[in-house]
Write a structure and sequence with these properties.
homodimer; alpha/beta; Rossmann fold; 2 domains; 4-stranded parallel β-sheet; 7 strands
Chain lengths: ~230, ~230
């Protein structure tokens, strides 16, 4: 059974669960795979830790992992991009396979037929500073591009976490459009708050935006050996 | 920590979690209470069991409860009205308090200032046959009224579980309006699929509709001693 180490943030986890249910072809409850979801909202801020100003979130994440193991999870997904800075450290603490959100995004880029072009990144400053995307995407031939105004992206993410989704979405829309204008054929929404905010601002999430939350949900369904409903 | 015995159905559980997050006043992830959610989608159909045609869901629900206990839950909520037919049987199997959705609805009716009038019920045929609402609401002075065409309600619930939300919502709208026309000052959406379907059909969920999912979410936040955001 899939174990979801969530709560980073809680509404992003709800969005991930919705995408997981949406991607499953089902006519009745019993057609859906089971899942166990921990809303571990007390995990310290990931970006603050990476930038050097906050407590280490690893102990709380490891404690969450132990709860999921105790309840019978057999594989793990983490619907928070920045938390993947600790992916290797968490994987070293469990025998359960932990899916990697950047690999799910790489698979989605390839599935879209995007080859070798620059990829824009809308992400937390923690994700950018930790270099989570560039190294893994480079293995697949993609170069990553940061937005013109990263402070605006970070401001938007904090607004989204405080519930001001539409205001956050407007800030993000400007940065997404800037990345597209500079030649990014794909822009990854590489923080799980971002698709929520863009949706609230009325921005369509179609091509060339790639939602990392949805990519991870599809990777989870793939790992469950359940057929995945085709994207609209 | 709140443990949620969910998956009945999975999208209704996602809706419940969204309402739980929405009802929490929070400026950052760490302001939210933790929760542990089991998407136990393999629990047999509750209505079929009550109507005599299907396997007993109690063993699977009890197994889910044990998983939540193992992971450290300290109280339980079940975002499925029909499953409350087994509330006493489940409560007898655990020392953890299990909130009761009908008590949450009674509290919400009283909080709205509704006194003594008839209450319409949009619910599964299992919930109606089991008499889940009438006895408990009678203690608070409310008489329950079933809709004119219960078969249409049941058809709508099956459509919603198969993802045909808007079509389901249209059927439910007719039955809700019928209940209001016969003098029900409040109509309880007493199946967790129903608010999803009505929202998809464009029906406003304002007064006189009362969403049992939201009532349970607010009862959970109240039980966590966290202040509850006022309804819009």
């Amino acid at each position: 059974m899939l174990g979801i180490l969530g709560g980073m943030g809680p509404m992003a986890t709800v969005d991930f669960m919705r995408k997981l249910v949406d991607a499953t072809p089902a006519m009745r409850d019993q057609d859906h795979p089971g899942a166990l979801v921990l809303q571990a909202c007390d995990i310290p801020d990931r970006t603050r830790a990476i930038l050097g100003g906050g407590p280490d979130p690893l102990p709380a994440m490891a404690a969450g992992l132990r709860r999921l193991e105790a309840a019978g999870a057999t594989r793990i997904a983490i619907p928070c991009n920045t938390a993947h800075h600790w992916h290797a450290a968490l994987q070293a603490r469990t025998a359960l396979p932990i899916l990697h959100i950047v690999e799910a995004v790489a698979d989605a880029l390839i599935a879209r037929g995007y080859r070798g072009g620059p990829v824009g990144l809308l992400a937390t400053s923690g994700t950018l500073t930790a270099g989570l995307y560039p190294e893994r995407l480079a293995r697949h031939g993609f170069a990553c591009v940061a937005p013109e105004d990263q402070d605006a992206v970070m401001r938007a993410i904090r607004l989204a976490k405080a519930g001001a989704m539409a205001e956050a979405g407007l800030l993000l829309r400007t940065q997404a459009r800037g990345l597209i204008a500079t030649g990014c054929g794909q822009v990854v929404l590489a923080c799980t708050e971002i698709p929520l905010a863009l949706a609230a601002s009325g921005e369509s999430l179609g091509d060339p935006l790639l939602d990392a939350t949805e990519a991870l949900a599809r990777a989870c369904i793939g790992a469950c050996d359940t057929p995945v409903r085709r994207a609209a």
